[in-house]
Amino acid sequence: MNTSEEETKQIIQNWLRIFDIKFGWIDEFDKIVTKYVESFAVYELSGICFRLLKILQGHDDAVRRVKFSADGRKIVSASADKTVRIWDVILKTQIQIFKGHSYGVNAAEFAPDGSTILSCADDETIRLWDIKSGKELKILKGHIDSVLDINFSPDGKTIVSGSKDNTIRLWDVASEEEIKKFHYHSDAVNCVRFSSNGQMILSASDDRMIILWDVKSGEKLKIFNGHSNLVLCAQFSFNDHFVVSCSCDQTVRVWDVESGKLLDKMKGHYRVVKGISYFPDDKTIVSCSRDNTIRLWDVKLGYEIQRLEGYDSDVDGVDVSPNSDTIVSCSCDTIGIWG
Questions:
Q1: What Rg value do the Cα atoms of the chain yield, rounded?
Q2: Secretion signal: which residues (predicted)?
């Protein structure tokens, strides 16, 4: 933010404080006006403004998850149509399709080095695919119910998975062996994520808990309690200092990793919030919901700064490109690219 923008923001904030002291507005009315004006100011000064660039079609059933590659040039999608597909961000076309899962695919992502694709499905398996040849490389078996989420460790040597069987499992990529099982959640594990240093794992569950785990010892480090309904997704901030989560309770929440305390509860969605992601600078969060919207939130103030509309059905997944200039979303059998 340049000097003039900083000065403008300071003037607006000082003006609001003067109004509050000088006129002594009724508390609730004051809060409403202050929040509205501050959020408008943040929107104007942030420079963030996305619009729909393209709708990608090709899947024959619901697209459940979308994820950018590390270089931001490709997108991988996972669908109930049993396929995993790769899309070119610049050309906005499908460039590859992987078939092999016998039931709907719940999640997919690129390996850190970009050479392979990892996927998981309702067929209780985790699969690795070679991008160059398009061939299936490995099938990891062990879960006894749908595998709902997967994530590579930062070095690409380990995989973490979360399942409807209530367990979290660690897998060695080279040997294809299960190397550890975490079992504390009392219901389906919807989301699992490694920290950026690979030393911690985050899990989110239908039991309404978010748990921080130590990878080496398998011990619980923190339990984040507060959501009043199923927790569908949880993500680390890029600096690993914070966790953002979303839930069927219609809220987006931000937690402090060190203390385990709730820092903010963002309200605005009026139906289930399906997915969330930090922007790489950790200053903005994007969320998607069954209220058919995508919303961007200012982390510092906790305010909604943009709402992306246009969908006529649930928005099930969302991700942000590494350079922060593109958002990808999925809904029904289509993928949206916003920039």
A1: 20
A2: none
Q: Are residues 77 and 210 in the same domain?
A: yes
3-state secondary structure of 174: coil
Mean pLDDT of all residues in 169-191: 98
Length, in residues, of the chain: 339
Global pTM value: 0.88
Q: Report helix angle 3-23 to 27-46, nearest 10.
A: 170
The mean predicted confidence, pLDDT, of the chain is 91
Tens-digit pLDDT profile for residues 132-161: 999 999 999 999 999 999 999 999 999 999
Q: Could you list the residue range(s) of the whole structural domain that residue 41 is in?
A: 3-46
CB burial class (10 A; 0-12, 13-18, 19+) of residue 73? middle
Beta strands in 91-206, from DSSP E residues, in sequence order: 93-99, 105-110, 116-121, 125-130, 136-141, 147-152, 158-163, 168-172, 178-182, 189-194, 200-205
Mean pLDDT of 19-44: 46
Whether 222 has a pLDDT exceeding 60, the answer reads: yes
Q: Using an 8 Å Cβ cutoff, are 110 and 122 in contact?
A: no
The 10 Å Cβ neighbour count of residue 261 is 11
Domain count, the chain: 2
